Amino acid sequence: MAAGAWRKGLICLRLCFLSPPCRALSTSSRVLAGSRWRLRHGLPRSGNEYGPLTDLPDWSYADGRPGVLSTGQIRRRQERKELAQRLMELIGEVDFAVANHERRLKAVDDKRENIIRQKLKRKGGEAAENNTMTKDIS
Q1: What is the pLDDT of residue 97?
Q2: I need a surface site. Which of 11, 25, 89, 121 has the fewest CB within 10 A?
Q3: What is the DSSP string of 30-94?
Q4: Within 13 A of 3's CA, how many CA atoms are on the CB side?
Q5: Eight-state DSSP code of residue 26
Q6: Are 31 and 53 in contact (CB under 8 A)?
Q7: How confident is the model at residue 7, as a pLDDT?
Q8: Cβ contacts of 44 within 8 Å, gap of 6 or more
Q9: pTM of the model
Q10: Quick one: pLDDT at residue 60?
Q11: CA gyration radius for the chain?
Q12: Percent of the chain with pLDDT over 70
């Protein structure tokens, strides 16, 4: 029994040395502190990607004018501007493709209707009978 207790103690010592020391008491899992939790809750991957602390100027003048933007803020604005331009181009391409598809469908329908109109029509039959009946009556 003494050997079993000694082995348990050795295992405890090994686990203590293998795991990093932690002085903070935490009731949540370590996994929830990462980017997956933030993404699941609709937040940015890290805390400094976007938001008022990142996008707004760091300071302003006493009379209320905004301060000078940092180089990172200027770069982010430029990236967003380019992204918006690219999105507008892609939306234009999609609109063109939809209109082109509708034009093609209409052309196919018009062609089908034209073929139906150009087919040979029956001579005689109901049309001829209606004409003779009206002549006989008058």
Answers
A1: 98
A2: 25
A3: SGGGSHHHHHHTT--SSTTSSSHHHHS-S-B-TTS-B-PPPHHHHHHHHHHHHHHHHHHHHHHHH
A4: 0
A5: -
A6: no
A7: 57
A8: 38, 50, 51
A9: 0.49
A10: 86
A11: 39
A12: 65
Q: Is residue 13 pLDDT above 80, yes or no?
A: no
Go through the chain and tell me how many residues it has: 138
pLDDT tens digits, residue range 29-82?
A: 555 567 888 888 888 777 777 777 788 888 889 998 888 888 988 999 999 999
Residue with tokens 């598809």: 101
Count the Cβ atoms, other than its own, within 10 Å of residue 37: 13
Is the distance from CB of 67 to CB of 59 less than 8 angstroms? yes
Written as one letter, the residue type at 52 is P
Query: Which residue do the tokens 């509708």 mark?
Result: 102
Query: What is the Cα–Cα distance from 41 to 35, expressed in whole angstroms?
Result: 10
Torsional class of 62: left (φ above 0), alpha (ψ -120 to 50), beta (otherwise)? alpha
Please state, in angstroms and rounded to a whole number, the distance separating the CA atoms of residues 55 and 49. Answer: 9
Rounded Cα gap, residues 138 and 135, in angstroms: 5
Of these ranges, 15-29, 69-83, 121-135, the one predicted with the greatest mean pLDDT is 69-83
